[in-house]
Amino acid sequence: MLLEDRNAIIYGGGGQIGGAIARAFAREGARVHLTGRTRTTLEKVADDIRAQGGRAETAEVDALDEAAVDAHADAVARDAGGIDISLSVIADGDVQGTPVAGMSLDDYLRPVTTAVTSKFLTARAAARHMIPRRSGVIMMFGGTGNLSAIRDYHVGGFLTALDAAESLRRQLAVELGRYGIRVVTLRTSGVPETLGADFLEREAIERLIVDPTLLGRAATLEDVGNVAVFAASDWARTLTGTAINMTCGADLD
């Protein structure tokens, strides 16, 4: 197993992407610690993992609450013996569909503030425990993708929030590399499965995601889980300070 006996904290572990990654991590032997603000969604993912023979713990943690993030990371490190992987997939609360020229300042800044705060706090909490062990992987979602593909759709501060995550990834990688800690972001052009059947603009958004790709398809939740396992494993031991591109060719490096 690629992640046997690794301890992984997943912030936003009750969501579709966080849940998919948690299931993939557990399948590969990791003990996953699922955090979020809604106990019922966390327990659903944890129950799925346990039913397959995996190990999962849950905790209600608001990733914007500095004291709560630090206390939970401290408890995991103490009780489980350390933190090997920290992954943030916290939703940024962005407002989409309104042109920038018509947006309020609060609506534009909300996803930026949320992304920077949650990713900084969770990464810092993990790094403090990884540094003495001189190992660990910090992961987050980021990357702006193909801007021309969304010229007719208004995403507000969402792209700025993603760029902020990439900037944080670079800074962390530079500072933490000397301690053997890797930092990567996972980049998709969107995962259509997460839109939901009742999403008002599902078909239009799916076309925005799929049409710019070179492969004629987008990443699935299963793809995201599998790539996240690779990124967190020793098979990716040479990768840090970089984004892992899962855009099916929509974004060319």
From TrEMBL:
Coiled-coil intervals: none
Superkingdom of source: Bacteria
Keywords carried by this UniProt record: Oxidoreductase
Keyword Oxidoreductase: yes
Gene Ontology molecular-function annotations: oxidoreductase activity
CDD domains reported for this sequence: SDR_c
InterPro entries: NAD(P)-bd_dom_sf, SDR_fam
Pfam families assigned to the protein according to its UniProt record, in alphabetical order: adh_short_C2
Claim: Oxidoreductase is one of the keywords in the record: yes
Family recorded in the similarity comment: Belongs to the short-chain dehydrogenases/reductases (SDR) family.
The name this protein goes by in its record: SDR family oxidoreductase
